[in-house]
Amino acid sequence: MDEKSSRPRQNYIKAAEKAKKSRKRRKHTQSKSESNQKQSATSTTSEDDDFEIPGYYYDRVKKKYFKILAYQHSHSANAITQKKLKIKQDEEKRQSFLVIDRKHNKIQGALSKNIVYHVNDRQLKGLSEEKPTLIKSMMQNWKMRGKQRVSSSVDGEGEYSRLEHPLFMLASPSGHHLMCVWSLTTSVVQRMQMLKVEEKQQSVSESLPIKVKPHGVAILQASNKVTDLCWGGGGGEDPLNSILYTTICMLGTGSSMALIRCLDSDSYNSMQCVDFNLGFKSAWTCAWDQTNKRFSIGSDKASYLMDVETRYMLEFKTKSRVYTQLFSSQTKQVLFSGTALGVWIHDLRSRSVDPVTKYHHKSCVSGLYLKQDENYLITSEFSGKVCIHMMSH
User: Fold this and answer.
1) Nearest in space to 380 (alpha carbons), one of 343, 347, 345, 346
2) What is the distance between the alpha carbons of residues 353 and 111, in angstroms, rounded to a whole number?
3) What is the CA radius of gyration of the chain?
């Protein structure tokens, strides 16, 4: 009986000894890798000491010596000073640390099973070919923990009490209508509603001389997130009868969409809807051409032109993300795209996909405005600057 009772204790002691040995092996390998890094660093410094000559700098790439000049005598851009050498050494150290961090993040990202990490990484770095399939495979392994009944009734006085933050506000040219997009509390649904602005007699108790009230049918967007909207998209001559807006799936499992909704309908079920599936292309902004019944979509590295009737799509290169777009007011044959590199101007009558003219900016372009005579283009940047460009015909 004593031998049988002592066996579990012996097994426990053996397991503890194995765990200690594995810990020692890990510490030994870590210390060995650290010593190797130190040895490599010391070897490079020792090699630098071998080639070092007082007052001169040895360039390993060019394999030449360069004289270190004083700061007051360094008028040339290629002159080497102590300040420039220190900046170069700091940059080399920073690049080496970046390489180590990229390797570590790549390993952690590949091993991570947390879907929040991959979604956040996708929002920061943009679209990739591996992320949508990875997130989709991870979502297939989700398990249902419970069910909650969601009320489908949105009519009544309590519907506007759920409005949380205004995301977009688009004014009509006359200023009598506003198209707004709100987020709803305790929900991922976004509500789109037209507001009618009416003037009223200003009294002492009331400070605002206008009255704003809902007009038309509300649009509830639940599947994707709204990224931009503009007036137009319908078949009539009045562009205010319909709205064009773009959406994007933040999880990467769904397709980006361009949607047209007619605002003259009596109810949401009778509303005329036209949908355009853009696939996995990101849709960040849109613009409508009422004359030719077509619209443009601003994506990550290109602008897309879509014909509504034929659904024929053309691609124009921009090399960076498009934040805002605008058609020329007179001919409608010129497309202005505000990107992270500046304004790219494409001639839609040309067969070339490259821009005709470029206006470079130091910051991302956030807004475009073209005067009626099309002689001046006014742009705004994320940095807060407003630029005026003189158009050359």
Assistant:
1) 343
2) 41
3) 31
Give me 45's structure tokens. Answer: 């410094």
**Of the candidates 271, 229, 233, the residue with the CA atom closest to the CA atom of residue 246:** 229
Backbone angle region of 384, left / alpha / beta, with phi > 0 → left and psi within -120 to 50 → alpha: left
Measuring CA to CA, which residue among 243, 251, 255, 247 is closest to residue 226?
247
Please state, in angstroms and rounded to a whole number, the distance separating the CA atoms of residues 100 and 108. Answer: 12
Q: Distance between alpha carbon 353 and the CA centroid of its chain, in Å?
A: 23
For residue 150, what pLDDT is reported? 34
CA angle 22, 23, 27 (to 5 degrees): 120
pLDDT tens column, 69-78 = 765 555 566 6
Measured between alpha carbons, how far apart are the two ends of the chain, in Å? 103
Largest Cα–Cα distance in the chain?
104
262-298: b (≥16 Cβ within 10 Å) or e:
bbeeeeeeebeebebebebbbbbbbbbbbeeebbbbb
The predicted pLDDT at position 304 comes to 94
Backbone angles phi and psi of 373, in degrees to 5: -80, -5
Question: What are the distances in angstroms from CA 372 to CA 93, 377, 378?
Answer: 53, 10, 12
Annotate 30-98 with DSSP letters as a single string: HHHHHHHHHHHHHHHHHHHHHH-BTTEEEETTTTEEEEB--GGG--STT-B-HHHHHHHHHHHHHHHHH
